[in-house]
Amino acid sequence: MLTIRARTAGIALGLLVTGCTQALQLSKDDSPTVLSHQLIGAPNPGEKGAFAVKTLYYGSGTDKRRAEYRDSVTIKTKTVDVSPFVSTEPDNAKAREKDWGFGFSKVPINARVWYPEGNGPFPLVLIVHGNHDMLDYSDPGYGYLGELLASRGFILASVDENFINGNLRGESDGRAWLLLKHLEDWKRWNDSSAGPFSHKVDMHNIGIMGHSRGGEAVGIAAAFNRLSHYPDDANVKFNFNFDIKSVFAIAPVDGQYKPAGVYTPIKNVNYMVIHGSHDGDVSSFNGLRAFQRIQFTDGKPWFKAAWYVYRANHGQWNTVWGNKDNGPRSGRFLDLRGLITPEEQRQFSKVVIGGFLEATLHGKSEYLPMFRDHRLIGAWLPKTMYITRFEESGFKSLATFDEDVDVTTGSVPGVSLSGDSLATWKEAPINLRSGQNDPINTNAVTLGWNNHIRGDDTTKLGKPASYTITLSDSLVGSLHLGREAAVYLSLAPTDAKPGPRAPARDTTKKADSTKKDEKKPPPKKPEPKAGKDSTPVDLTVEMTDASGHVARLLLSHFGVPRRPLEIHILRRHDQEQQRFPTQYEMVLQTYVLPLAEFAQASPQFDPARLRSVRLVFDRLVAGTVVVDDIGVSATAGPFLALGEP
Amino acid sequence: MNLRSAVPALAVFLTPWLALAAQPRPILPSVLVLPSGPRTLALGDVGITSRDDEVIFFNPAQLVIANGFSMSGERYAPGSSGAALSAVTRFNGGGIGIGVRTQSSDGGFISAPVTPTPFEQTALSSSLEATVGIAQAYKGVRFGIAGKYAEQDLGISRLQRGLVDVGASKVVFGAYTVGVAVQNLGQDADLPGPLEAELPRQATLGVSRGGPVGEFDLFGTAAVSWVRSNTLVPAGGLEVNYSWLSGYNIALRAGARRPLIGEEALTAGAGLTMDRLSIDYALETFTGGRIGNRLGLRIR
Questions:
Q1: B139: which residues sit within 8 A by CB, 6+ positions away?
Q2: What is the CATH number of domain B29-299?
Q3: What's the pTM?
């Protein structure tokens, strides 16, 4: 009897537990097809280079907790006062001072360095961790990048900011300022006549990288670097002005620090951000907001890129953090089954970080095309799905949907927008997955269509819906377009599917006679609830020149138009739905459409006299896409090399 | 308040209480000394620093942080049972709560083992407590007060009293919750006939601490009560929690108390939490090998 009871109780408990968890849900992996090409012939930037790697520590030499920064420092550094940027309640400050042996007014300049053997000068790259258990030291976790980059001719310093980890808020500006103080020391060491880095550092090619809160900090550091005063207290003066050329953010937060109440403006640097879809800590792609607001205003050749990595998490880019995005007991909250392996995730970061730094600090332009189209490096990337954004400094906006509420006008005079047979045509903000309170600060246009004509004949199709961007002659003249130029657009299909369109009106009938003669349409049959539509999304991009010559190519020629990637971060489905309004992040894919390829497809088409760009929704009967950042660039050439896979 | 002024104040406060404590008499209403919830019962019937709503029966100061609704019932033996119900919610930066406890027996059994009075052995009896409490925090210290109505029916006799509990609690050294409560302040019973009864007035000092240990969460609590018989009654318990999925938790509990007449020291129990719902079970041991089973449901 007891056995039966126990068994019943066991079954009930089992049902209870399994009923609260969910089966692993992932979007269908298309990487075997998408990543089946390797067009860049340069060496894999994720693989070790030719330099022998040396390491050392620099620091206070007095660190109570960190033996390496107490006993093993090759270069002793002076402490700095970070208190204008970092503060907390007196009790907490006292407790932290007891823990660390120093307060905010005397924090150390500590880092571990990987550097190449040789005379240099080598570009300098700093990397800084983000928030984590302050006693589970984060700075050793980027050793794999140190080994890689030093072997490829970079100096990498992994900066220790563990002493401002833990229970602090709003300290990202302090993290940024500390990075710049490290650079001051580096300048001194490079300028000195002796020491391991004497005249070995290329201070004209500096990169800064950060992870999580450190990812926000590098953007702030890029901004502070060019300011003369601290925005929150002008009594604190800055005098940095380093040649920071490259900023790389790994799964950053954004807006935890807002100088003067606004998101940190970032200008005139090469910028790249990466984020994992299965990030259990920063669970929305916050870096997209930073990507959107970066501006190139000085006429120099900069670019920015954002990569969304399906099934990557927050912590596996740091070997100390691993898959514990939610603390030591992450397994209770987070569904870890869907993650790519730590090795795959780090292989990805080695490839993109290596490629980004090679391109921007070593000037190796052969790596530039990978940021325009990731399909060019299929052999280097781990087999998962990627959505990528890209823009270079030659980009001129035609329609970014941010300026006004008129859906027919573009971003600059001379651009007009029109829709034909669209079921949905609206402009609205894009929000991060975490909800309406977390906008990316950009608007986009949503275009929905259904080419079916309503009625009994389910095969009857109307003319394909379309959306057209028309340019005036004077505007085209000012854009200096030619065969080197490209049209940019960023687009993401959604799962929304408008209903069939109404039949065209018979305009030959008189208005008043129709009422009498017209039969009432039969009551609408409820449409069966369809499962998720897995039909591939595609559309035709049609370019027309001033002479009316038309060139058409499929959008899929330039990238993968992919339906939203399903995300289930939490083990509990109910908690996931409660926390996130959608089960996907709205990340638009940037498509760069070289005008030369259109001219090749239709030789009569003259790119220099481009008149209109038309998106023709003729490849899928019904669907919806979100489109943003339509523009052109006359200087995309270096990124267009190698064409499409 | 400095030490010089605190000592006379404490003396004034305790003197009448100590004077009344000299003579052992039956304790009534009996429900006031019976368990009020399966979690606290399993922890040696220590609840002075509890964060559950049943803390209203132990220390009204903790209403500041307690939350939820719970009910529980216990069958002591055939013909003898008890039940409790309590609810706490936030109010004006603090908390307010209500609680009701009952106990009854059909006279065929020693109904309330903790108070084996002649009445309980010979007659139908029932006992009721209804409590309303309120608490506020001031400078990191929680203060609470509860007013209660308590009655005892003994055959044709009925004892009715209005009583007051006061308490305070504070988190010290970042991790320990310390609580103190003085309970059942009111006029002693005055029953017809030769028997006299007294209220179960008591002062309790307790402490608790919880925290993660590997994959488990441990919670320990201990208290010492100064009861009217002028004795110190220590008690305590330990709880081990394990969660395998966010929001789900199982707990095993064991406690020990200084047994009153009719009781044994050991208490134990278990609980299952599913998000805001908890189902808890506790057992208490009585003399003669008897066991009282208490089952409760809690919604947070």
A1: none
A2: 2.40.160.60
A3: 0.86
